[in-house]
Records
---
Amino acid sequence: MSSMADGWREVFEGKRLVPPPSPTVRSAVERRLTPSHGFQLSLVRIAAAPLPQEMPEGERGVSYQLRVSLLDRNHQQFFGKTWKSQPQRMKNKKISFSEVVYFHTSLRLSSTVVVLELVSLSPRPDGFQHALGRGFTLLELFTDRPEAQAAVGNRRLNLHHGSPRCLLHSLLKDTVDYSSLLVTIDGAGLECVIRNHPALASMMHLLPENVLVSGDESIPGLAASPTGDALVRPRLLKMMPFTLKGLTISLQPSLEKFESHLLQLVNADCRNTKQLEPEDALRSVVIQERRVHVGVHNGWCFLDKPQVVVLQPLALGARGRAGSSSKQSTLVKDSSATSSLPQKLGLRSSLELNLTDHRGFAVIFQLEFIFSAPIGREMALSATSTSRGSFMQCVRWAIWFPFQEPAVWEQEEVQLFLQGGAKPNPQGVMVYSNQPSAKSQSSGPLLASDTVQVSEAKDTIAFRLERKASSTKMSLRTEKEDLTSQRRSLLSLSRGQKQVPADSPPGSPKGPGLSLSQLATTSRYPTISHSSSALPWKQPFPSVRHASTLASAHQLSHVACPGVSSIAHLEEDLQEERDVSPSAQDGDQLQEPPFTPVHAPLINLGTSVSSSYSVSSRSTLAYLYSAGFPDITDCSGQVADVLDPTEALPFDLHREETDLLQGNLLIFQFLAFTRIPTPGAGPDWPDNIYFTFQFYRFPPVTSQQLKLLTCDKAKQKPGDQFPCILASINQDGIANADSPGLQVQFRVDEAFLKPGEKSRFLRYLALHAMHIDIWDSDSLHLIGSTAIELKYMLRQGKLAVQSFHEVEVLTTNFVGEDTLPMSTDVGQSSAFRPMMVHTVDRGRLHVRTGSIGCPVDPSGRRTKDITLSNPHIITPRTVGFRGGSLSCRKVLQLNASNTARAYRQKTDSGIRADTVVAHQEQSLNDSDGRRHKLACMAAIHQQEGKEEAEAAKVTGRIKEARLAEEHHINSMEDDNKAQGISNMLRQAITTEHLIYAGLGSAEYMEFVLRNPFNVPQTVTIHSEDPELSVITNTEEWAYFKELTKTLTPLEEDMFHLAEGTPGLRIYLWPKESVNIPMKYQSLLCDHTMAPQGPSFLPRGKGSQMAKKNLSNIVAAKTIKVTFKSEDDKPMAICQINVEPTPHVVNQTFRLYHPELCFLKKAIHLPPWHDPAGRTDPDARTHISVRCSDPDVICQTRMQVPGEPQDVYLKVPGSPSPKIKMFYVMVFSDKWMAAPSQIWQIYVHFLERVDISCVIGQCSCQSLVLRGKQAIRRVKCFSSDPLELKVDPEGVFVLPPSAVQELQLKVQPWRAGSHFFFVNAVDLERRRLVSAWLLCLNVHRPVLSKAFEVCVPVDGGHGNSKKITYTNPYKSSRTFVLRSDHPDLLQFRKDQFQIGGGESHTIGLRFASSQSPGSVEILVFVNNLEEKTEETFCVKVHYSVV
């Protein structure tokens, strides 16, 4: 074992490389030259006559050697490793080498050259050789052309006098042509041949970049060649899959003591190397996470990127995998074995490693700790609101050679010693060491008999390595066990365990690849992510990576740019495990697993990148600046200063606050959008777009419909992706090309900001990024999202600034694996199927931001801006009674007399009218004159008598009415007088106070209550609104006092709440004054939102302006707090006038879910620090959440200290296509003074349709669209028109209350679970009529035949093959040919017709590839109805001829 370790270490130390300059690497990345290319350099001979300083002819034994190195002449730095040829003798003034050198590099730049030096070797008396340089030459590999092709072919290079070290002289700096400065040796030249060597692509993972090697050098993993040159046509050794299980790490003397001692040293080192603020000195560094890197190394490099997994503290005797046991699981046997404290670190999952049976292969383990440390005040703006940062440090590492002779690890546990200290290691990092015995530790395995003796003094790692079955057909038991492990992994997430999914995305190492510290890594975008191998996100509260004194140079160069942060967003399975063991209890309640929703987050990145901005070509920039966009100018008409968003921006808060131009006009100009070809969409997609975003606490903005105008250059050069200019659309539907772009501006001055808000607004600009959603205005589908950093809108004393941003528009796709159903798993839900998330780049958005300083009119300053000395203390006014009349007698008497007069007039007129009518009717019926006269006289007398009697009755009633009126007036006068006096007295004891309240923010105030009586009083406090409460907890009171800097007395046990009393009670001595602490906090707000779709501006508005919607703020109200004495009379009244203030949204989530179903979601939060700065490791940070919608269940669960927490949401469903919007407030302090984060969550409820189909075959599904109240012109849009088509395709009329049947035709080309969207849009109003969520479960077809074909790499013309197909039917049929890779395979005829039983030859044309590899292509023979008749599988091998 020692000889093998020495051999590997000799290869490792002998192949250490000098890295290339960092600017050169960045330049190659910017020019998209990152794929490495292989080259072959053949060294033929050197014409050596005459060589300078020739040896005397009598001195023999002189040989010559050729040394080859790589040089970056722009930075004058050699890199890689110098290759040396075999010594050769000179014959006939010529030196023949005939050697071939291979290397691969991605630095295909003109600055990369090959330096070849001729050295003479002469023997010395001491046995060594004396090397003397005889000349050198330069070989230029690449040109300055954009394609950066190598200058291949036969070359003859002249030798120059001197040594290659002269190339490092300062005179040669920035020199392109060395011919004028170097002296050529006459007659001496090197003949060589440089060629491209694509065959190296298959073995680049075995050889580092920029390494010069010969074909006879030993490279583990590469098969030997009988010709002696294994690199001409490299053949790789077969890799075998292995599973690493039960990994545990034991640190001595114990895990607790090891970490305690390590923290003491780190804290002391931080105090010695960093100047901390007084408040930071009270804090300490804590361990945030423990993880291990596992990788396979062949002495040259790692074969794949090491896998990173998170370790869990385990109790003594516990193993890494649940349910496993081992006889050697206990390394230390003492009294602490029964302790529940963690004694070791373990991995709860398994790892998959690919190894080959070669003695040069080694498995490298690296134990790494993630520390969380306080950040000083000088880093306050680059850090987040938590004022803490994270750094990584390697503490131990180990190496293991699995293929030693004999292999003793089969079916046994392997134990290794962990190393530490300043020793070279494959990771190239500094390793912690504080034990004197670390020098004596070796990397050999432990014997089972020596475990107890050595484990007490050495740190060890233990694991088991098992060989996986080579057969592709897995047994039913194995498949069931894997499915069970996947379910347990999902269930462990719901129980708060840090489990990593067993399946990694394509292109990443297999096995767990997600670390919780990676979730906290700062990203440039505000994204949310799912459980993929490298998906960090951003929010201001996660820990941010910062450089530390313990970080290595590699770590320092990879510190993410601070400013914004991330949130890990994980799908949560909230049900119990279905397949319980037989030993489980029979009373477990089964719950239906929830649907796995489609989550389209705002930004979903793969990894943290150094820059989120793309750099356009000069022609693209020239085209944009010539489009005629309006300039951003200052108040004097001068163009604003331009800031580069790719450079760091210094920020001085004091300079911004003392700026003479206190007003700011902030401008956002949306200039253009660059399309990126999207599978399933046409080249002109999208055609029309619109934006939605919200800046600071301004109302949300929804832009109008914008047209994408394509330039002529883009049509002439299809390969170039020129941006499309954005233009608004007029009322007639024609794009306004004369006024390009969209401009939105916001004015922020003293009239807008409330007192003390200026610094908060400036920090918002410095630390936040504005999230923007980009929508397709035709289909109303979300194209993607992006974010723009706002720190480049800080003027820093300048009159005006502007910056140009080109940002990526990203979205996420969810793909599930194709798991074939098994008979034993009937009824199992598909929710256990693992889902992988892919980030898709949808385009580039070109935005210009600007900030213009504006003067502020002093006369226009509001009175409320004049702040008081202490705005949190409410002191009652000491004013007396102002006097005035309290009687309303005259008014009441006037109203009573008017009422009586109207009553009398009504009564009199009614009596007289009846009398006259009766008299007239009687006189008309009398025909005799005399009788008529007598009757009239009698009637008159009779009437007079009746009138007198009636008058007497009326007079009596009037008198009674007058008496009643007078009595009512007197009683009303008395009541109003008492009420008036009461109102005057209440007004005299009422004190008004104005507060500006935002969502979730607590407004603290103290009311000075004074007892005006000479006797003690027990005062009862009553509040009209529950949102205004009295603070009764002393700790909470002290917290708010410190927060608001209120210097007033603090008293304990001041209030008393008795049973049956309406409120709190406080005892006051005579003439005593006390401060009553109160707070107002509103957690509810208005959820009104604009309908989905672009806005329509009123006529007369500018075409470059966007519409601002109503803001969702808390309601304005007036609240009275009454202080009543013992006789239930008010002693004092405090009236709080609440003026609502919009809140700032830090993160936006968009979730898609089936209608009328509960949405269950879990948002994964990284570890939080303690805002109080306590150093107690047992202290827990109080994280609490609240929701603005009372119907939404929102809660969080407290985990162990230092572990992450989950925010759980349960949202009730709504009918399709309703969108539910609400806010989630995250508080990091115990008393919830102000939310650290406010999330805006949109839930799109869609009608769910499940479709099961097969690849390549068309499946149909019917949908029903119901009409509304009005007639509509509707068109249906699919999110993937290539695989999903809707019939009818065009516009149709939907009558009111009508039913329209829609036919879906699905023809998928990818296996697994996929999600598509279908929107029915009202074209006139641009509103969503209905929406569907299609859940596709796509299975692989049954193969009829399988073929293999070899296609040469870089062949240019590809390869053609034929397949014979026989019609199985007796009649003539027409067939259609399809392929799942149309870019790699084309048919000679896509459709053919053959008779019954006849055969037809199918012509296949395979496209060539640029790199070797293999791919499986499916060929489908479908009928005219797109039903698959036969399926062929063609495995294409791309290899070097």
---
Amino acid sequence: MSTETAVTFLNRLMAMVDVLVFSSSLNFSEIEAEKNMSSGGLMRQCLRLVCCVAVRNCLECRQRQRDRMTKISLTSTKPQESLQSLTGSGATKTGVENISGNLSPIKDPDRLLQDVDINRLRAVVFRDVDDSKQAQFLALAVVYFISVLMVSKYRDILEPQREIARSGSQISRNIRQEINSPTSTENPVTFPEGNKEKEILTPIEDIHVESSLPHTDSGIGEEQITGVLNGSDLETATVPDAMSELLSSLSSEVKKSQESLAESPVEVLKPSSSVTSVSQGKGMNVKEILKSLVAAPMERAESGPEPVSYPDSSVKREAQTILPMQFHSFDRSVVVPVKKPPPGSLAVNTVGGIGITSSLVTGSTSNVISPATATPKSMINTTGAAEAASTSSSSSSSSFVNGATSKNLPAVQTVAPMPEDSAENMSITAKLERALEKVAPLLREIFVDFAPFLSRTLLGSHGQELLIEGTGLVCMKSSTSVVELVMLLCSQEWQNSIQKNAGLAFIELINEGRLLCHAMKDHIVRVANEAEFILNRQRAEDVHKHAEFESQCAQYTADRREEEKMCDHLISAAKHRDHVTANQLKQKILNILTNKHGAWGTICQSQQNDFWRLDYWEDDLRRRRRFIRNAFGSIHPEVLLKSAEEYGAEEDVMKSKKTFRTQAIVNQNAETELMLEGDDDTVSLLQEKEIDNLAGPVVLSTPAQLIAPVVVAKGTLSITTTEIYFEVDEDDQGFKKIDPKVLAYTEGLHGKWMFSEIRAVFSRRYLLQSTALEVFMANRTSVMFNFPDQATVKKVVYSLPRVGVGTSYGLPQARRISLASPRQLFKSSNMTQRWQRREISNFEYLMFLNTVAGRTYNDLNQYPVFPWVITNYESEELDLTLPGNFRDLSKPIGSLNPKRAVFYAERYETWEDDQIPPYHYNTHYSTATSTLTWLVRIEPFTTFFLNANEGKFDYPERTFSSITKSWRNCQRDTSDVKELIPEFYYLPEMFVNSNNYNLGIREDGTVVSDVELPMWAKKPEDFVRINRMALESEFVSCQLHQWIDLIFGYKQRGPEAVRALNVFHYLTYEGSVNLDSITDSGLREAMEVHIQNLGQMPSQLLIEPHPPRSSAMHLCFLPQSPLMFKDQMQQDVIMVLKFPSNSPVTHVAANTLPHLSTPAVVTVTCSRLFAVNRWHNTVGLRGAPGYSLEQAHHLPIEMDPLIANNAGVNKRQITDLVDQSIQINAHCFVVTADNRYILVCGFWDKSFRVYSTETGKLTQIVFGHWDVVTCLARSESYIGGDCYIVSGSRDATLLLWYWSGRHHIIGDNPNNSDYPAPRAVLTGHDHEVVSVSVCAELGLVISGAKEGPCLVHTITGDLLRALEGPENCVYPRLISVSSEGHCIIYYERGRFCNFSINGKLLGQMETNDSTRALLLSSDGQNLVTGGDNGVVEVWQACDFKQLYIYPGCDAGIRAMDLSHDQRTLITGMASGSIVAFNIDFNRWHYEHQNRY
């Protein structure tokens, strides 16, 4: 600590002692016991502290005197300046005064001890005077202390001039001498003697002094002392001055005393490690005195001895009171001869004739200073520099060790005879009186009060009691003469006695302090080490935390930067997307306006310019059947045809690809299960929870590729908490190369998809690597992405909603299902069992297998694959009851022809290539090329084909131009083993060259245009229908599982594949190559091209045989089985139910599904009285095992009790007034799928309304039209009861609404049920809309006005086309559309038309009956009609062939509906009754008619 701090601290500590110890009468024995101090230790500690403060005050007095003398004696400016600069004191104020703010204890600088010090000494001695032993010891020590100080003061007064006279002349010399003085370890620096005390007491500036300061003694000459500092860790050059060091070194001892003083120990600052022993003039002297008084350990001892010198006799005597010394005569002529100091000691010339041996406690050991005359304890007394040669004195040398002995005590100084000059004597006497007048009485008091003890203790050289003998006690008691007292003390006998006896007590006091100091130092060192250890550990932790914090900051910054980049990317992507959307909207508006039926359209507008393309909309069976307008359409007039020479032999092509063989062949038998083995819901839940906690705009962002037909576009997929974004990288070189015509058909390049739209997420493969995902949307489209690795795929799935693979396959909607392998999906789903039980068709099951095995419309290399099933394409009629017309599905397409099978078997057996594993077929049954070949006539596949085929159509001989020819090639051509695609079973448009492309002329002169159909198919629709019938036939059902084994099952690879002649090129198999292991980019690219060209196997779903389908006979007694195998004697009419009201039943809704809370047939009459008639599911049980007569009496329909009893009719009557001009018919009502609500239109306020069927109360009024609402229709319902409602009006528009099955309102916001917004406004009619039908599965609304063509709209509001009937079909009245794509329209005067959903008129007929109701069977194959003549008729929908006529009823039919199982037909009659008919559409199935 700094000097100022140390002095202030010392004063504060002393003040505490004054208050807590001297001013109190407390007994400190408890504190001493607690602190392990010996009895009386606290008072002894206080004495050490009091002595320290007293000496400090003495030195301040000296310093002030020196200041005065210096100003008088020094006349030279330079010496004065140098002196001031060295002492740091230019002002008269002392350092203490500066420090304490003029509150210095020095009241009279001429006094030896100040009043406060005398009072403290008195208090120490007399406080516990009852404790005689302790008090005696303290008294003896105080006697020694005061005696030595008094004698020293006497010497000062005797010769005051010498030091002043010499000080001025020696300034420069002493400094130089000190700097150049050779010592054994260092060069001491001398300071002028006159400033040494000031140097100590006024350290205003920090002056770093490196050694001891030899100086002249006052009147006796120069004196030098050798200090041998035993400690090796003292530093000298780092402390401001001696005072600082000295006071600092006190602090640890001070701490001890403070601990002793206070009940709770006060920790005192330990001296800083830089505190060192610096002997600067008197500074060293003071330090030694104080150190001996308080025995303060120095923190660090210098690495070598340190010379010490004393400025004048008083200070020297003070030192002698503390340091064990050998006293010498005051006679200056006595000189101690110099002897060589022992090694390691330091001999320094000091002034004076008195040798001083000092013992210092430095560091952790005591330093020994002893005479150098005859002992190795190197204290050398020589004369000062000026008189060194002439004077000498003998010195008795006694060895001093760290303990205290009588020989070690400094002898009380012998005073030389006083000079004769009486004036001088007077002066000395006055000075003595003044200096000692206060302290002498204390000494006398002690001597008197402790006379018995002191007399026994202070013995003379002969053992006599000095105090008793002679005049000692008398002098003490009676005399007040200071001089007498001093003379007494200066006598040789007293000096010897005091040194020998009282000195012992003082040395003991000092040694005790030293021991305490050692213990304290050890304790402090230990505590310091512990603290340092703790601090180091904390520092290390801090460093670690800091590093961690920095890394976190860096990571956070990087994340934020990425996020910022991503946000920027999202903003730019959103702008681009908005631009694209705006263009689409503009085009939509233009289409609506310029359409023939739009505001700007004209009747004579030619439709030659209309181009159509296949929409990406899929129905429930994943069929893409809907054609939409094609703004990019063209007849491609500029496109050329390829010539025959442009094709190389297939074998040569294969050989050229062999160079791409890599080391990455995988055993084809190996099961390649994906990463999801063992993954369970706990992991899912954990990760889902983590995802849910994510904040911020972007949850995940990753590079990805958009996979679309013939397009792979690199970009960035970003997932927020509610949306997916994909933004293509338009700067990518690969993207720039893509033909803009192809990009025009590619959706999602700047895509945005809401989480609420996602319906299913499937894991997919791309280029045989399991790194892709396909996401299915609510708008019935899908989008496919490829990712860098499987880990990213998993992250993406866990960032998306939990939808699984949808609800169709009986699997839970969990993310682990989306990540499941195809084989796991197949095993877990219920589709195989449903197929076996014939709940689903062969087509639906094959589409399921394709979907879970990774086949997708988005990757032409993995297009869904379907089998050829018919072999007869030659005959004019096709008999589907002859087995010979069906293919053997147990063999692959390549081995159906026995001769070709031999060829393939030989190729495999005689394989010679070591690089490539053997195979049977060098081409695949499904490739991108073959898919495009099949679909070349319809956009967008035409454009895709041209893009993949160098911008040219195929050579005419190779173009798909004839189904018969294609089948023949599949049987004969060794390089053609193509299977079919699903479009062969549902898309007749693929066979028609509707855009009139120039496909060339074959060699036989035939123009290639529409595909040539087999003779048994008159039109493409016939071919598709018959092909589908064949696929669903019993022959195919019985052996389809064998084809599944070949394509998806255990015969796909391995030994079974070899036996079945079913081995393809190794690069078509999953797991055959790991593209990530190919580091050469060129080789990898070649491998990718190779895989794309070869085709890809579906994932293997089974490694055991697939179970066969149950036969129809096995299922005949199941309730849901076809009735064609059951009791044929059933009555046509099951029951008639007559309502009390005679009002015609104008609406019938049969919502009879068993899982409904109330399966019922809801009827509504012309008078708007409705009934909820309970349905009993008993019909299907007739003829089944366990069937009883009792059950037979249970009729399927039970009349609504409220109607039957005529009691609660008010709950069944809709009383709100309808517009008088409205004719109530079946179109005015819609019943929700759960039978709980009924929607009614025709009200005068232009609204339609929602009523509860339970209470009859109005629950919602919906406005939207500008005129009376004339008709309503409901789409089929999905899970939860959601569906579309369409309202038609006299304002010639239709509005598409959304019915929420959850909230039971129109619109999906219950808070805004008063003003729901329609999903779309459908325009184009010129007259009042009279009938409408909506099919959610196809996304179509077909509506008819009072006059004019029926219009087809999409549910997004686009007008697709008008259904133009024959000339006389201009007044449509009834419309029915099936999910199979048939649209039956009834016009006035008994005319029917059948349109395809793409607008083609498929058939028409006229009847005599005025039809009031019609409906299609669920498969769309059969039509049921009823009219005013009361006859129900069944027709074949495709060609209006009449199948059956039911017995006539006694009243006209106004409405009809079918039960959920298509077994019961319920008709509403004009007579106010309902009739239930047995109906079985299988009865008219060709197989039933032929077999049964």
